[in-house]
Amino acid sequence: MAVRIITDGSCDIELSEQEALGIDILPLRVSFGDEEYLEGVNLTRDEFYTKIRAASSLPKTTQISPADFEEKLAPYVAAGDEIVIVPISKELSGTYHSACIARESFDGAAIYVVDTCNVTFGLALFVRQAVALREQGASARQIAEKLEELRPKARLYALVSDLKYLRMGGRLSGAAAMAGSLLGIKPIIAIEDGKVINIDKVRGQAAALEKVVEYAEQAGLKGDVPCIFGHSDAPDLVQTLCELATERLGLTDTRLSGIGPVVGTHAGPGCTGVAFFAD
After folding, report:
1. CB 242 within 8 A of CB 229
2. Angle at 260 between CA 73 and CA 26, to 5 degrees
3. How many CB atoms neighbour CB 194 within 10 A?
4. Is the CB of residue 278 less than 8 Å from the CB of residue 190?
């Protein structure tokens, strides 16, 4: 009997890490018009950002279906394994509900579904914490309970560089996007109650990076607190943010992550931020 950890592609952990971490990542479907892809299978992140830059409308991402979960769960349940499912926030996708529906098909099985209220590298924090707890000998139930305890402590702050994609998604008017672009306005976003919200706006990239670090510091990021810095096709920008935060806050446990289609579709290229569990 083993403890299995299942998540979805919105955690933005590289599919190549599945084996090393001992987890299952169900890939997301991404559609550009009539063309459908499976992220990480026949669509890389680089290809995704190349396509979105050239697109006249935003792509669509499709939630993981109950059937997808059932197919993954069936052999584990048959083997008597315990299972923890760690999906994207239920406020952002129906994937959580799909997992709950699939769980009902296996009456009596030890299957726990945790609403992390998170996505992208914020969700990755929960997945990696689940792996660490399993390595310490925790049961699936204990892992689920601990993740739920951590849920209100999760923090994610990021800046959005290009207002074009917020406009295309209807989250910003054309006039506001044009004015904001001319003035160099960079929205600062966070995840609150499972939703991505706008918490501030700053003029200029350098000031926006400083503001992200400021929010993180106020929330308790410092020293040896584990954190993940994420970016949407902006490796230089995330490196700058990481170096700035590391120097300012004395960070010693950092990790870099890409941002995939779920957040990348709406934030667009050039987004960068940090996620961690507040003290």
Report:
1. yes
2. 10
3. 17
4. no
Query: Could you give the CA distance from residue 72 to residue 43 in angstroms, rounded to a whole number?
Result: 21
Structure confidence by residue, pLDDT tens digits, 101-151: 999 999 999 999 999 999 999 999 999 999 999 999 999 999 999 999 999
Q: Are 140 and 110 within 8 A, CB to CB?
A: yes
Dihedral over Cα of 40, 77, 133, 148: its sign: positive
Cβ atoms of 278 and 149 within 8 Å: the answer is no
Distance in angstroms between the alpha carbons of the first and the last residue of the chain: 34
Q: Are the beta carbons of 51 and 60 closer than 8 angstroms?
A: no
Give the position of tokens 């169900």: 26
Spatial distance between the Cα atoms of 115 and 90, rounded to a whole number of angstroms: 7
DSSP, res 43: B
Ordered alpha helix ranges (H), the chain: 18-21, 45-54, 66-78, 95-103, 120-135, 140-150, 164-168, 174-183, 205-218, 235-249, 261-267
Pair of tokens at residue 97:
């509900």
What is the C-alpha to C-alpha distance for residues 202 and 67, in angstroms, rounded to an integer? 44
